[in-house]
């Protein structure tokens, strides 16, 4: 029987050995159409507003698949919701999360895998969604742009998402509301463009604005990385590790806060 909800485990640069949970049921549904998306462009019919909700409660198959997979994966680092669009669009995310915690916690672990969430941050202006996702032990939230121009060219958001500042404010609120033991990482993907520098988010203005946004959000971690798989648009390419290191140093200077750890991959 093909698995419906669970995939992997996969070795992730940022999460270690990660077992993926897809609660959008194999159909990429997203509020963004990122130029670098490794699962391809978002179908215009599935590029949705952040108010859009998917009603898809967990079926018994979810429990069974997760239990079966955990039997064979004793050294997992993370059980990760995400990978196929924006998981917070599913209004039943908390029902999936409760089941996942219960199944994880009834098993003996040397070190428990973290319950993690990948989000593109667009729905987090909504207080109810922030309250639900605060229950994840590790939230990895996307923020690739500090300027409106870079936001539009990089993430190509649904027309109802008008302002990057709303996303930054949502992340500030999320961090303040999260339980102290749960951690927030801001994930920033930077890339170059073959066409022109104007079509890349790797530019001075964007890096500065990202730095100031991070200073206000105060995440636990910043994950700086670039393209490692085939991007949705062939006109963009990866930036190298030494450049990422330089950008990381610039961000450190702007943020000027030792409580925030910046990694580059
Ligand atoms: S938010 Fe994630 S899934 Fe959605 S388009 Fe961007 S990279 Fe792809």
Q: Can you tell me about this structure?
A:
The protein is an alpha/beta fold. The protein has one domain: TIM Barrel (Alpha-Beta Barrel), CATH 3.20.20.70. The protein is built from seven helices and ten strands. The strands form two sheets. An eight-stranded mixed β-sheet has the order 1-2-3-4-5-6-8-10. Helix 3 links the parallel strand 4 and strand 5. The relative contact order is 0.14. The model has no long low-confidence stretch (mean pLDDT 95). Bound molecules: iron/sulfur cluster.
Task: Outline the secondary-structure elements.
Layout: E1 6-12, E2 16-21, H1 60-71, E3 78-81, H2 93-105, E4 114-119, H3 127-133, E5 138-142, H4 148-155, H5 164-177, E6 183-189, E7 191-193, H6 204-217, E8 221-225, E9 236-238, H7 241-255, E10 261-264
Parallel strand pairs: 2-3, 3-4, 4-5, 5-6, 6-8, 8-10
Antiparallel strand pairs: 1-2, 7-9
The structure holds iron/sulfur cluster.
Residues 30, 32-34, 37, 39, 42, 85, 120 line the site of iron/sulfur cluster (SF4).
The biggest sheet, with number of strands, parallel, antiparallel or mixed sense and barrel status, is: 8 strands, mixed
Q: SSE order in H/E notation?
A: EEHEHEHEHHEEHEEHE
| Number of discrete domains | 1
Segments where pLDDT lies below 50 for 5+ residues? none
Strand runs, count = 10
Main attributes of the structure:
single chain, 265 residues, alpha/beta, TIM Barrel, eight-stranded mixed sheet, 10 strands, 31% helix, binds iron/sulfur cluster
């Amino acid at each position: 029987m093909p698995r419906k909800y669970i995939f992997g485990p996969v070795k992730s640069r940022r999460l270690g050995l990660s077992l993926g949970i897809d609660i959008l049921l194999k159909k990429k549904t997203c509020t963004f159409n990122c130029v670098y998306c490794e699962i391809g462009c978002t179908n215009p019919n599935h590029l949705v507003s952040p108010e859009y909700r998917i009603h898809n409660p967990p079926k018994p198959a979810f429990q069974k698949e997760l239990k079966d997979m955990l039997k064979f994966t004793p050294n997992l680092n993370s059980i990760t919701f995400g990978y196929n669009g924006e998981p917070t669009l599913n209004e039943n995310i908390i029902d999936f999360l409760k089941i996942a915690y219960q199944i994880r916690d009834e098993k003996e672990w040397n070190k428990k895998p973290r319950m993690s969430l990948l989000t593109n941050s667009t729905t987090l202006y909504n207080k109810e969604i922030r309250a639900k996702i605060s229950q994840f032990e590790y939230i990895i939230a996307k923020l690739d742009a500090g300027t409106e121009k870079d936001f539009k060219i990089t993430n190509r958001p649904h027309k109802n998402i008008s302002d990057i500042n709303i996303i930054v404010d949502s992340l500030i609120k999320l961090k303040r509301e999260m339980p102290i033991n749960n951690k927030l990482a801001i994930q920033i993907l930077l890339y170059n463009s073959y066409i022109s520098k104007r079509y890349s988010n790797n530019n001075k203005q964007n890096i500065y604005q990202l730095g100031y946004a991070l200073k206000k959000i105060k995440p636990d971690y910043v994950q700086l990385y670039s393209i490692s798989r085939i991007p949705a648009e062939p006109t963009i390419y990866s930036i190298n590790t030494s450049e990422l290191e330089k950008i990381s140093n610039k961000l450190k200077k702007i943020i000027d806060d030792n409580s925030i750890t910046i990694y580059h991959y």
